[in-house]
Amino acid sequence: MNTSDTQFDPTQERKLSLSAHAMVLVIVCLIGLVGNTVATDIPIADGFVGLIVLYVISMIGLLLTEMVPVKLPSVAWISLVGILLTLPWTPGSEWIIAQATNVNFLTLATPCLAYAGIAIAQQEIDIAKSSGWKIFIVAVLVMTGTYVGSAAIAELFL
Amino acid sequence: MQRTMDMVLDWRLHLSVLVITIISELIGVIAIPIGIGSILLLPLLYAFILGLLINPNVIKGAGVWIKDNDVRAASPLIVIAIMPFIAKFGTIIGPQMEQIIDAGPALLLQELGNLGTIVIAFPVAVLALRMGRESIGACFSVAREPNIAIIADKYGLKSQEGAGVMGVYVIGTLFGTFIFAILASIFATAGLFSVEALAMACGIGSGSMMAACTGALASAVPEMKEQILALAGASNVLTYATGIYLGVFVALPITEKLYDLMGRKDKSAQAGE
After folding, report:
1. Number of structural domains found in chain A
2. Class of residue A118 by CB neighbours under 10 A (exposed 0-12, middle 13-18, buried 19+)
3. What are the TM regions of this chain, as residue ranges (chain A) (predicted)?
4. B54, B81, B108: which is the final residue of a domain?
5. I need a surface site. Which of A142, B40, B100, B137 has the fewest CB within 10 A?
6. Residue B218 shares a structural domain with residue B102
7. Is there a contact between B25 and A39 if contact means CB atoms under 8 Å apart?
8. Which domain does A137 fall in, by range?
9. A79 vs B103, B134, B237: nearest CB
10. At which of B81, B108, B130 does a domain end?
């Protein structure tokens, strides 16, 4: 193991401004809309409204990330906003749920993974190569252990 | 500021993602039957492969279309691109809140199941593969960003522990979605655990891995789709909230202790060279 990878730290993400987030989200939602229209029989107009709803939820979550002093990742805030707006006790939740239903959940992950594939850096390939087969085996076992461990405990208490 | 905007509005990058998304969705879900079940290939997996194929770091010839600055621009966009997906998950969890509260104890306690990596991976790394202190960083967690931060904070990323966590992080980035899609496909059809338990296990604190895991599970058991997504999503939110504490206060101390117990205390100087 050498130390050539020391400059590479994925926790040091470049911080983008709220307006940059807002713009990228528009692009991502439009790509998502095309994907949704290709993948399902849902009319484009219905998918469009659905994505506007998801866009607004994401933006509220991003605003909360900036404003609330509790340190949680923005995805956690976005989840919470989505949950709170669709609770059975929330007024108007049925309308929001109906709109969101017009967007296929799995399709929304497709553009993200395309960005992820394009974003793989030379350092990451170098780390994978230099770590070799041992770290590959360990990584597969780490993921298997995490998954089976959680499933086993959940099974016990369900 | 201008540079940031150029990066954010990199049309070449977004156009590529659009085309990849269309191709991937046109192919759709493919099920490959194997002995104990079937492995489900999902559009998001094709999208990742297609992304790699136009990445100049992977395929040299791809440099004529995607440049280094496009690659750099793509990286901060990953977490933004997953946001509508996370928002959608929220809207699946909300309506099912009563069922989630019913499953509350299981949902909370299965977070401890993330320690399963220490049970399964750590002994193999230390005893079978004879790895040094790398194995501590590699095996204490599923090695996503918060876990890297823990190791960076405690040992620094230049250390052997740092090399371990980075190694698993990179393998997870490259193969994690495939591994979780395969795990979920096999367990869903093998019948060892209930679908609810498998759904909760999908919440591992990574949006794309959860997407692959729940996608495979929901495609295998479509009649339980809403429940699967709600439980996985709730578990994922819990992991976002608790993961770092479980890592700092439980997983890492246990891994450290076990490393000493396995009699590798004195090997730290020579290992990993």
Report:
1. 2
2. buried
3. 16-35, 47-65, 72-90, 96-121, 133-154
4. B81
5. B100
6. yes
7. yes
8. 122-158
9. B237
10. B81
